[in-house]
Specification:
The complex is a heterodimer of chains A (132) and B (166).
Chain A (H helix, E strand, L loop, with lengths): L4 E5 L2 H7 L3 E5 L2 H7 L17 H11 L5 H14 L22 H4 L2 H21 L1
Antiparallel strand pairs in A: 1-2
Helix pairs in contact in A: 2-4, 3-4
Chain B lengths: L8 H10 L4 E4 H7 L9 E5 L4 H12 L13 E6 L2 E6 L3 E3 L5 E3 H7 L1 E5 L4 E5 L2 H8 L6 H23 L1
Helix pairs in contact in B: 5-6
The chains are: A mainly alpha (132), B alpha+beta (166).
């Protein structure tokens, strides 16, 4: 059985984020059926508790930045189904003043020390990626 | 077996200063210099168009960098590789961002901030916070890069607000 395909029309910020007007998603039929509880696939602007498709794809992209978009959307729908809002947050660094005080010490480092820390983090990130 | 070359930012910045090559460290490394503990793999420089050839020569001399053939080095964006490291070199006289803001190299350079670590003989320049925000306002097709840019802008705006309060 072929997976259903869905077109999502984007606007505003989501259009900027993806750099296009229409997105095409290939969805797992079970997850698509399940998503009906959380997503209004008609894309109407009417206010309501359900997410609009453009909103869903944007949130999915930020939550799973490294996955193909259809997978990211499927994953986000699965997370929506858990009803645990904490697991829906995107992966991104918090703005500096909101993060731990100890991290603020970074600002006090010399320019050379900042570069050395950056190089060390970069090497560590690379090792983690290679280990995957 | 020949060891893979490694890019060393501190050493490169020292050499750029020694040879008086006018350029700015931009991108996330510049955001980090303003105090944000952020990670990035690539290096971005905005080079004075007049110093472009000397910049590429230095990259080849020190790191044996992989660069495009000479007839293609006059382009405003050139990417160099040193081992696994990517160095994006911008040498346009001016750049227009997604909001139509015009950024001219000589003006941005004049407003830039000098960073110094005297014990390492390290002197280099990064754009001012306002100019760095403007330089981050580009739409990326890659949503991850776009999200990173937005995150950097949020950080820089917060920093600017904090500095104004002080």
């Amino acid at each position: 059985m072929k997976k259903p395909q869905i077109s999502v029309r984007l606007s505003g910020a989501s259009q900027k984020l993806f750099g296009r007007l229409i997105l095409r998603l290939t969805m797992n039929p079970v997850l698509l059926h399940l998503s009906g509880k959380f997503v209004d696939w008609s894309g109407r602007e009417a206010p309501g508790a359900k997410l609009r498709p453009s909103e869903l794809t944007t949130r999915a992209r930020l939550r799973f930045p490294e996955l193909p978009l259809s997978w990211a959307v499927e994953g986000y729908i699965a997370l929506l189904a858990t009803r645990d809002s904490a697991c829906l947050r995107g992966f991104s660094a918090e703005p500096y003043p909101q993060i731990d005080e100890s991290v603020r010490r970074f600002r006090a480092l010399s320019p050379a020390a900042k570069i050395r820390f950056g190089e060390r983090w970069k090497r560590e990130m690379r090792l983690i990626k290679e280990a995957k | 077996m020949k060891a893979e070359p490694q890019f060393d930012l501190i050493h490169f910045l020292q050499k750029l200063h020694d040879r008086k090559i006018r350029c700015l460290l931009i991108g996330r490394w510049a955001v980090a210099q303003h105090g944000a503990p952020v990670v990035t793999a690539d290096y971005d420089f905005w080079i004075d168009p007049a110093d472009r050839a000397r910049f590429y020569l230095l990259l080849e001399e020190i790191f044996d960098a992989e660069l495009p053939p000479e007839d293609r080095r006059n382009r405003p964006i050139v990417t160099a590789y040193v081992g696994p490291d990517k160095i994006d070199c911008f040498s346009a006289r001016k750049i227009i961002n997604a909001e139509g803001q015009e950024l001219v190299f000589h003006e941005v350079y004049k407003r830039s901030v000098q960073k110094k670590s005297p014990e390492e003989k390290l002197v280099f320049r990064v754009p001012s916070i306002d100019d760095l925000i403007a330089l981050k306002k580009f739409t990326h097709k890659d949503p991850l890069k776009h999200a990173r840019n937005l995150e950097d802008i949020r950080y820089l705006l917060t920093l600017r607000r904090d500095l104004k309060k002080k």
